[in-house]
Amino acid sequence: MNELVYPRERVLGGITLVIGLLIWLGLIIGTFGGALIALAVGFVLYLFAQSALIAHIKGNGVELSEDQFPDLHAQFTACCDRLEMKKRPQAYILNGNGGLNAFATKFLGTQFVVLMTDVVDAMDKHIDGVRFYIGHELGHLRMRHLSGHLLRWPALWLPLLGAAYSRARESTSDRHGLACSGSPEGAARALAALSAGAERWEKLDVPSYLQQANHSSGFWMSFHELVAGYPWLTKRVARVMDTSAPMPRRNFFAYLIAMVVPYAGRLGAGFGMLMMVYIVGVIAAVAVPAYNDYKVKATLGSVIIESQGARDALANYYESQQQVPESLEAAGIPPQLADGTQMEVDSENMVLSVTTSEGELIFTPRVTEQGRIIWGCESGEGIMPKQLPTTCQGFE
User: Fold this and answer.
1) What's the pTM?
2) How far apart are CA 78 and CA 7, in angstroms?
3) SS in 3 state form for the chain?
4) CB-based contact 167:228 (threshold 8 Å)
5) Cβ atoms of 178 and 135 closer than 8 Å
6) Do the Cβ atoms of 258 and 190 come closer than 8 Å?
7) Class of 2-203 per CATH?
8) Which end of the chain is more exposed for a tag (fewer CB within 10 A), N or C?
9) Which of 70, 190, 201 is nearest to 127 (CA)?
């Protein structure tokens, strides 16, 4: 049954699982187990949400059986046998309210396949069509696409990777639908009904429809497919007609844009772009202030080193004269550094103020018991304490 698996699915599934587990492990360690609480809460929320869906299906749908719609039940059973599924899911029909759709789900170990009434009615004259939809959903269950999703979840948001894995799963499920259909063209027409509608699909010219896949090599079509969880329908039809059919190459520049757009699943590329803007904004909000602080620290660190000579000269003057100089010039000290940074000394307490391009540094002297001068450093106007370099230390 390996021919039913799209070649890239297992590779992408393994990559997303490993990356997802590593991210969860990092979160658990980094939050000291806090991420486990988030996982537990998420699982509880999932139980309530999923239980509501299952209750809706059981309460409003019609379960297929030998007595209830035996023709559909026979097709469902035949498809399960074709796919060698010994444990058969429960199958239901549910009012689609105008939508051509079907889906698979599971709850606490029990698997479900749900066919919307519109799909069943549209395929009433096309037995292969119903089988394709049944096989597609059984493919999701057989390949356990609904299992391990939470473990992969952190990796599924990654640009390109999450969308590629989702598309690979859909292509695998299409192959399962093809296996349950009587012919490739039957499977193709069932898929094409999603485009042509419940009635027009019968008159669809399949070869002409396949030619539309050539449009997908353009920039915008390439981009929107790269960030989407489903391949273009024209490609899906082409692949069920011939599983080895070569597909048009995507535009190279579309990859450059798509690689920075997080995968947003059914929310679409627009939401992914919003996420990208949000992420960039968060990074900028953190990185820009951090870079600014780093720049200030580097400037102040240089000033501290360059002004060391002035402080030593002031200390020598005080130790020899036993008095504070009236000005820097009186102590024979230039009032500015080589780069033009201005300095000024207080004639009463010998506090040295250095006015840098980033703000003011204050150096305060203190006389030790041995009669020597030591200097404390602190921020002045325009400089925040967190921007001070480690070489600027106050008195203990």
Assistant:
1) 0.68
2) 26
3) CHHHCCCCHHHHHHHHHHHHHHHHHHHHHHCCCHHHHHHHHHHHHHHHHHHHHHHHHHHHCEECCCCCCHHHHHHHHHHHHHCCCCCCCEEEEECCCCCCCEEEEEECCEEEEEEEHHHHHHCCCCHHHHHHHHHHHHHHHHCCCCCCHHHHHHHHCCCCHHHHHHHHHHHHHHHHHHHHCCCHHHHHHHHHHHHHHHHHHHHCCHHHHHHHHHHHHCHHHHHHHHCCCCCCHHHHHHHHHCCCCCCCCCCHHHHHHHCCCCCCHHHHHHHHHHHHHHHHHHHHHHHHHHHHHHHHHHHHHHHHHHCHHHHHHHHHHHHHHCCCCCCCHHHCCCCECCCCCEEEECCCCCCEEEECCCCEEEEEEEECCCCCEEEEEEECCCCCHHHCCCCCCCCC
4) yes
5) yes
6) no
7) alpha beta
8) C
9) 190
Q: Report d(CA 165, CA 158) in Å as an integer.
A: 11
CA–CA separation, 212 and 198 (whole Å): 20
In whole angstroms, give the CA distance from residue 324 to residue 142.
88
Give tens-digit pLDDT for 54-72: 999 999 999 999 999 999 9
User: Among all chains, which residue has been given the structure tokens 């580097």?
Assistant: 298
Domain boundaries, the chain: 2-203, 299-387
Return the CATH number of the domain spanning residue range 299-387. 3.30.700.10
Instruction: Enumerate residue ranges in the chain where pLDDT < 50.
Output: 268-269, 271, 396
Q: Name the token pair of 109.
A: 């170990």
Determine the distance from the C-alpha atom of residue 216 to the mean position of all C-alpha atoms in its chain, rounded to a whole number: 25
Indicate the residue type of 255: Y
User: What's the pLDDT at 386?
Assistant: 86
